[in-house]
């Protein structure tokens, strides 16, 4: 127990609430916590916060030291690599001691004077949360639209300002996604409105700058399982409406010179047909899974004849290689692929005179194309990093095949040397015989004797892949003897699209058993032991944490679950909650008995048992729109009531933020320091 164990944990009251579906009755004693405005709910969350603070009080000085150590590695007066768009160089920079970015630009040459676009530090004054998104410059370079959120609930207000005078127009558009798109007349803006209850992005409006008349609704997505967005093609010729669900896409297009025109459907939705479009030289290039191309292929069609049977193949489907995205340039097509888990960047001239791959020489790296907004250029921007190598931004000349490192992340403090660390990729065997890859990093010289503390991280949903990336924050664990592991479990797309398919819907439990198999392998190979093994995941990765402690609590000494999605059945039955309807293709629709029963069999909240559980730190955000705060709150209350051990169980709710946690760049590091202090304290490490 911690040194402050005299404080008793809060015990939440029980008010039995019956939930009936398919003739099955579940009793939820903590259903009452759903009322965000109720004083008793707020009091309970505050009591949990006070308990967590009291129990971790003896680590407060250590948390401060960790924070200062993490902060000291970060270059405070840092700036992004400038990129050129429509005659201007755009730069994002930070100033020493300030939490928020400053956005600026320079005309034609980096030697010219700087024009300030936004100083977010000034804009954030007096706000407990601040986020600016969706910076969009008008084609004549005179105006900028942008979105601001001051609650963390991802409901942005769009404003427009004159760049030269900094005068903000009266136009103010609320409850949007924050992004907006200019037509070529410099007066018309298109934007996406959210449903005020579910926060689903579902309506596209046309807005005339300075106009007093109501904005015109030009598209409404009627299917509750779909969201919608609007953007401009890189060629700048088309404004594009995207409609998307987990399994299906549909696009609508409009010539950007004709903002009052009518959008045309590109290819009507067909359930299960996924595609995305890029425009170039009279054609649309289509990344698609058409004709059972599970790992996607590239096709094209004329911009005037877009019928499905007119699509022609450009890059065929391959069983072993996932086609992830493309970047189109005037003379080159750049294809981002994933082969055996590794990122590959392929460069092909349109005239077919060249076709080659960028060379990489590591087994645990991440590489991806970055900001390539300029169309007529021979240079490709890409980023590279690895578990032991800080992030760098490179420019590759596709004609001369020469590369220039534009920037390598500086790790300040003078102590970091990448040669002091080693990384490797190893494979565990899952219950069904599938080989599951893991990426590991640790300090050189570690002995495999079972005594090393090890933090195992994974996500494992939505086909989202956690690549092996460098982190300056993580050095605070590695330098204290921790091994850090990313488990590339099914549900992500690390080994291709099938890897995702095998970790969703009625195969979701593969995600959880894969993670457990990785843990067993790490213990068997004596990287660690259950006394020193820790697991961490957030959001859908928090669901993973909830599932593994029900399945195999004895394997772990501690768990960190950040904003965890743990009350799966109740949430998926409530279509008033943001995300629910759009998630049916990921988890299944529990209104169907088959999915209801499968979901209930793994939902962490529904499967808590009277038994021992590991030490746990669980975080929540009161304004979280992705995972409602009551899921972690109810989960902790029920765990407290049922577990039979004296292990630590802390709930920390950020009362000012949403799904992403605190908004300032240093505020979020304080959360990291608290989480690391929790783990290190369990290992008896206090400095």
SSE diagram, text form:
Elements: E1 17-21, E2 24-28, H1 39-55, H2 60-72, E3 83-85, E4 88-93, E5 102-107, E6 114-119, H3 120-123, E7 131-137, E8 143-149, E9 156-162, E10 168-182, E11 188-194, E12 201-208, E13 216-220, E14 227-232, E15 238-244, E16 249-255, E17 264-265, E18 275-280, E19 283-288, E20 297-302, E21 312-315, E22 321-328, E23 332-339, E24 342-349, E25 355-357, E26 365-369, E27 379-386, E28 389-397, E29 402-408, E30 421-429, E31 435-443, E32 454-457, H4 475-478, E33 483-487, H5 497-501, H6 509-524, E34 533-538, H7 540-551, E35 558-562, H8 568-573, H9 584-587, H10 593-602, E36 615-621, H11 630-642, E37 649-654, H12 667-682
Parallel strand pairs: 32-33, 32-34, 34-35, 35-36, 36-37
Antiparallel strand pairs: 1-2, 3-4, 4-5, 5-6, 7-8, 8-9, 9-10, 10-11, 11-12, 12-13, 14-15, 15-16, 16-17, 18-19, 19-20, 20-21, 22-23, 23-24, 24-25, 26-27, 27-28, 28-29, 30-31, 31-33
Helix pairs in contact: 2-12, 6-7
Provide a descriptive summary of the structure in words.
With 687 residues, this protein is an alpha+beta fold. The chain is built from twelve helices and 37 strands. An eight-stranded mixed β-sheet has the order 30-31-33-32-34-35-36-37, sandwiched between helices. A seven-stranded antiparallel β-sheet has the order 7-8-9-10-11-12-13, with no helix packed on it. It has a four-stranded antiparallel β-sheet with strand order 3-4-5-6. A hairpin with a 2-residue loop joins strand 23 (332-339) and strand 24 (342-349).
């Amino acid at each position: 127990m911690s040194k402050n164990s005299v404080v008793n944990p809060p015990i939440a009251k029980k008010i039995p609430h019956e939930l009936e579906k398919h003739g099955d009755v579940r009793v939820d004693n903590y259903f009452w916590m759903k009322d965000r405005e109720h004083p008793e709910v707020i009091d309970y969350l505050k009591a949990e916060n006070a308990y967590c603070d009291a129990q971790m009080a003896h680590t407060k000085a250590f948390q401060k030291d960790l924070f200062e150590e993490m902060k000291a590695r970060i270059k405070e007066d840092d700036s992004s690599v400038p990129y050129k768009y429509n005659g201007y160089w755009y730069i994002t920079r930070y100033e020493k001691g300030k939490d928020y970015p400053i956005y600026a630009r320079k005309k034609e040459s980096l030697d010219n004077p700087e024009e300030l676009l936004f100083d977010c530090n000034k804009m954030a004054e007096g706000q407990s949360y601040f986020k600016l998104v969706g910076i969009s410059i008008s084609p004549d370079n005179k105006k900028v639209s942008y979105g601001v959120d001051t609650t963390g609930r991802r409901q942005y207000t769009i404003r427009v300002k004159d760049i030269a005078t900094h005068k903000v127009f009266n136009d103010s558009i609320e409850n949007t996604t924050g992004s907006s798109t200019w037509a070529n007349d410099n007066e018309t803006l298109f934007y996406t409105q959210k449903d005020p209850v579910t926060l689903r992005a579902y309506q596209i409006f046309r807005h005339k700058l300075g106009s007093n008349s109501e904005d015109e609704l030009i598209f409404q997505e009627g299917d509750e399982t779909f969201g919608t967005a609007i953007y401009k093609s890189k060629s700048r010729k088309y404004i594009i409406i995207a409609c998307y669900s987990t399994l299906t896409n549909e696009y609508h297009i409009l010539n950007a010179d004709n903002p009052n025109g009518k959008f045309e459907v590109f290819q009507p939705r067909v359930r299960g047909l996924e595609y995305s479009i890029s425009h170039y030289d009279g054609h649309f290039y289509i990344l698609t899974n058409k004709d059972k191309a599970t790992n996607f292929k590239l096709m094209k069609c004329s911009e005037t004849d877009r019928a499905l049977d007119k699509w022609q193949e450009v890059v065929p489907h391959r069983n072993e290689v996932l086609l992830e995205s493309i970047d189109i340039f005037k003379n080159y097509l750049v294809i981002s692929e994933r082969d055996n888990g590794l990122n590959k960047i392929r460069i092909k001239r349109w005239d077919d005179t060249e076709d080659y791959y960028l060379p990489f020489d590591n087994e645990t790296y991440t590489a991806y194309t970055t900001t390539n907004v300029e169309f007529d250029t021979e240079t490709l921007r890409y980023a590279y990093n690895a578990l032991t190598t800080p992030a760098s931004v490179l420019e590759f000349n596709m004609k001369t095949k020469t590369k220039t490192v534009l920037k390598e992340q500086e790790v300040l403090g003078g102590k970091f040397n990448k040669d002091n660390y080693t990384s490797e990729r190893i494979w565990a065997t899952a219950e069904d015989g599938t080989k599951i890859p893991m990426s590991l990093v640790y300090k050189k010289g570690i002995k495999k004797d079972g005594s090393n503390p090890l933090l195992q991280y994974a996500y494992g949903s939505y086909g989202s892949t956690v690549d092996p990336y460098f982190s300056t924050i993580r050095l605070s664990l590695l330098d204290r003897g921790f091994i850090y592991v990313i488990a590339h479990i099914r549900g992500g797309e690390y080994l291709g699209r099938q890897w995702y398919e095998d970790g969703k819907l009625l195969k979701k439990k593969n995600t959880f058993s894969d993670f457990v198999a990785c843990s067993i392998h790490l213990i068997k190979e004596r990287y660690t032991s259950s006394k020193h093994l820790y697991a961490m995941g957030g959001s859908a990765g928090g669901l993973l944490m909830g599932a593994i402690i029900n399945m195999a609590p004895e394997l772990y000494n501690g768990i960190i679950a950040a904003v965890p999605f743990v009350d799966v059945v109740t949430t998926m039955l409530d279509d008033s909650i943001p995300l629910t309807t759009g998630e049916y293709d990921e988890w299944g629709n529990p209104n169907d008995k088959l999915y209801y029963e499968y979901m209930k069999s793994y939902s962490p909240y529904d499967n808590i048992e009277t038994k021992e559980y590991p030490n746990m730190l669980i975080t929540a955000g009161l304004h979280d729109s992705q995972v409602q705060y009551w899921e972690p709150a109810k989960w902790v209350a029920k765990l407290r009531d049922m577990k039979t051990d004296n292990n630590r169980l802390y709930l920390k709710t950020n009362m000012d933020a949403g799904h992403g946690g605190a908004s300032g760049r240093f505020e979020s590091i304080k959360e990291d320091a608290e989480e690391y202090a929790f783990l290190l304290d369990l290992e008896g490490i206090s400095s």
